[in-house]
Each structure stands twice: as structure tokens, then as C-alpha cells.
Amino acid sequence: MRNLTATLCLTLTILLGSAGMSESADFQKGLTALNSGDYATALREFRPLAEQGHAKSQFNLGWMYNYGRGVPQNYKTAVKWYKFAAKQGVAFAQFNLGVMYEDGEGVPQNYKTAVKWYRLAAEQGWRDAQWRLNKIKARLVSKGIDDCLYEEVAKITGPESKKIVEKHCRNKLEKKSLDWLLRKYD
Fold it and tell me: How many percent of the chain have pLDDT more than 70?
């Protein structure tokens, strides 16, 4: 009985270990195909892995749909696969989701959601995500200047020009956090 148990455990270990190696080999085969432009093979290798929850395969499927490589371009499907990968911590997927929400590709444009994904990617060191966060903040500051001008001009009692007031508003708004700007102007 002990030998049977040991044999079963050894067989199970070998099967599970070889499944992991097979998954790794299939992913590598898909990646090689993707990098060489053989999108049909890449799709054939990535899809089953992605459906089993393999994060990097999910990201690569998202990328293929985002750019129409080997599949018809479909932003909604790209978002679907990017989300699966992003929720597993793939920084590039998080960044790409941020871009899609910022630009409204495959999803309604939503700066708050874009910021959420950019922050997650930035926390993992994705520098472009931090650049995008700064870009959104600058856009919201500019949007807020108009509101600020109206409020500040109403307060002015002297001959100050619009430029002086605009500078004041820019200084005031740039000190605000990105979260505050999102709540106020998004």
C-alpha cells in the first residue's frame, strides 16, 4: 500500500511538473511567434493559456486585439484581456488599460479609472504611467483655470489683467492633488 501511495504521489508530481513546463513552452512558442509576426501561431498558443488564467498570455491577447495583429482590431476585447492580466498585477496591462480609459477606446472615457490603472502601473515602476498621471493633472489644471478665473475676477477690485489672474489660478490649482482635481473637474 505504501508503494502504491508513493507511486501515485510521484506520478502526480511528474504530471503536474510537466504541465507547468508545457505551459511555459507553449507561452514561449507564442511569444516567439508574436515577435516574428506569426500571429496565427501566437493566437493558437496564447488563447488556451489565457483562458486558463495565464496573465502574460492574457496581456498578449489584449495587445493583439488592441492593435489588430492576427485578429480583427477590437478595443472592447482588448480591454477584457487587459483587465484579466492587470488584476493579476501585469504592469504593462495596467498601463494600457489606463490609456484606453483616458482615450475612451473600448470603454467610455473616464479619467478616474485611467488614474486608478496608471497609479497601479506607476507603483511597479512603469515610468510612462507617471508621465500620463502628470499629463492628466495638467489637463485638469487647465480645465480648472476657467472656473478659477470666473471666481477670482469676481473678487478683484483693481485693474489686474487676465494674465495675472490666470497665473494666480494656475499656481492655486497646481498645488491641488490629482484626486481633488478629478473630483472637481472630471
Answer: 80
